[in-house]
Amino acid sequence: MVTLTPEVGFVLLLAVLPLELPAQDPGAFPPPKMEPPIVTPGKTSADPPSDAIVLFDGKSLAGWRSADGSAAKWQVRDGYMEVAPGTGDIQTAQPFGDCQLHIEWATPAVVRGEGQERGNSGVFLMGHYEIQVLDSYDNKTYFHGQAGSVYKQYAPLVNASRPPGQWQSYDIIFRAPRFDEQGKPIERARVTVLHNGALIQNNVAIFGNTYHDRAAVYTAHAPLEPLRLQDHGNLVRYRNIWIRRL
User: Fold this and answer.
1) Domain of residue 85, residue span
2) In this predicted structure, which of 22-36, 53-67, 82-96 has the lowest mean pLDDT?
């Protein structure tokens, strides 16, 4: 029996490999027929591009409603909106499906409570799928309830939280679920999230509505639904919210 050294084996492998890869068949990849539309980017990555819908400009809640359809009751001052505890969640007047969302938020600078009671709110995509907002700076809680988690489903890949009171950002790419004619899910929702520029959710498949006290499950809904922000009783602030339909 002849035993080959790793070096000899590598040389023999190179000898049987083709020196050049065959040319790719251009017919298998027909060129696109539509030219990509021109979008003017913002001055920075935090500024809305030209095709974005500005949901909050720091001045007015005109584009937002309470859950019962009445005017949103959160406070607006100094370029941000702030949760008014006890007034309930607010949601956009416009509905959205597949989207790119930019949103900035800050938890209270004065720390009160711990775990889920510290700077808690949430960004609910289509009103059903929560990306958790929480003061997760030196604050222990269950991992799939930290800031940037798909609530009770996926922990963030890393904890990219800034200290309490500092502004933070989420950049979210979301693909809505698809349902058949009978309301059964045929494609799960998917989401990618960057927290302060760090990737924390990488195209994860959402298991269904993000409940606190029960297993996730899909319930059929319209292809477009409002974006919702949560009143969890904490003075969380939001600013510079814009969205692009995809």
Assistant:
1) 32-245
2) 22-36
Q: Which tokens go with 46?
A: 């935090």
Say if 9 falls within a structural domain.
no
Do 83 and 236 form a contact (C-beta atoms < 8 A)?
yes
List of residues 6+ apart from 52 with CB closer than 8 A: 102, 242, 243, 244
Tokens of 125: 């995509």
Number of Cβ within a 10 Å radius of residue 177: 21
pLDDT category, 13, cuts 50, 70, 90? very low
Write the CATH number for 210: 2.60.120.560
pTM of the model: 0.88
Number of folded domains in the chain?
1
Q: Has residue 27 been placed in a domain?
A: no
Top pLDDT among 28 and 246 is at 246
Least Cα distance to 133 among 169, 88, 89 occurs for 169
